[in-house]
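FIELD: query
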Amino acid sequence: MFTTDRHHPDHDPHTNHDPDLEGRPARPLLRLAYNGAVILGCLGFMLVAACSVSLGTDAIESPNDIEVGECLSIGADDEPGKVNASKVDCERTDGLTFYAASTVAAESGCDAANTSTLTFGENRESLCLTPNFAEGRCYQIPIGGDLVDYREVTCDAQAAEQTVVARAVDRGDGSITCDADDTMWSFARPQSVGYCLRTVV
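FIELD: result
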């Protein structure tokens, strides 16, 4: 099992495919316990500037730009230390999305395990994010690195530094049960959802 740590990235840092994993040594997914937050590399070194600068009417520049239960996507920005965040359909089939779970004061942090955080420096508020994994797809998941590296990938992709590639082998509600070799993630907000994750790389 593995553990992820809360971190404050200060630099910049999709497709799906079900590969034949036969013959590949099985490894249990390192247990991703964000313990409240993984800050989505915005705001630079001291977290002092607005985080998201996406183009278009669906750009998210404050927690008020999205309702709890709606979804957003995250992407790299040209400016080091920032990300783009845009509101998207939760049912979209391309790329990783996140549910907007709640809004908290930046200094409080998100209290749910494995929850990621998007922080907006001007008003010092954070948006807590729950991953919206699709069953059968693979995701690159940061382990102490930059959350801009969190994305959907092909299941045979090479994991970037400080990440793992994991497959969502099952999806259900928060009471989901998983095989012993898998890691279970469950969330209560903004809805009850759970995943069984298996390390691929």
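FIELD: remark
DSSP finds no helices and ten strands in the chain.
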